[in-house]
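To: structure desk
From: M.T.
Subject: fold request, one chain
Message: Could you run this one when you get a chance? Sequence is below, nothing fancy, just the single chain.
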Amino acid sequence: MNFEIQGNIVPSVSMNLSKGESVFTQSGAMFWQSEGIEMKTNTKGGFFKGIGRVFAGESLFMVTYKAVKDSKIAFASTVPGSIYAVNMNEVRNFTIQKGSFLVAESSVELKTIFNKKLGTGFFGGEGFILQELKGSGIAFLEIDGDVIEMNLKPGEVIKIDTGNLVGFEDSVKYEVETIKGIGNIFFGGEGLFLTKLTGPGKVILQTMNIKDFSLRVSSYLPVQSS
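Reply: Done. Structure tokens follow.
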């Protein structure tokens, strides 16, 4: 499959599919397509896998697009940012933040996983529910803002705002850490948790936290009086 990522503000990825090739995405992500594409909508893996995707911020149903002849199809991001291609032939497993998945070849498996730390699960929020990419082929991730790639050395640690995490290789150790100090929690502006990543391995970050961005925009919206 040949592909091209186009656009700078709200980009899209266009693909050339040979007859028999197929890709899957969540409902509503398709941008445009040429003739010769067959569309099939289902829960892809069963009802319970679909429910898991809902918890991960994706749609219950997934859509598979299969080329019945050589065709083209494109998928667009939903917010200003970037699209990042993960070649699953170069990594064994790749864990991603909920809401980051855009589209992938059908040879890629998308699985919802849950953080086992009870405290994180109790308080909820980002970092509790993640998704795992497995298999072979190429998967495309939707990035909020710009892409930052980091290759951590063995034992190297970074701590980041959970909303700025996109994904990481399975060689990277992932932990959710509570911010210390009551004053820091309530007045530091970083929330209750930070994500702690320990190398070795590749880490993908995004410069925009969509929740913080939404709050900033909403503060400028007029308030209707009752």
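Reply (cont.): Residues 163 and 209 are 5 Å apart (CA to CA). Let me know if you need anything else for the meeting.
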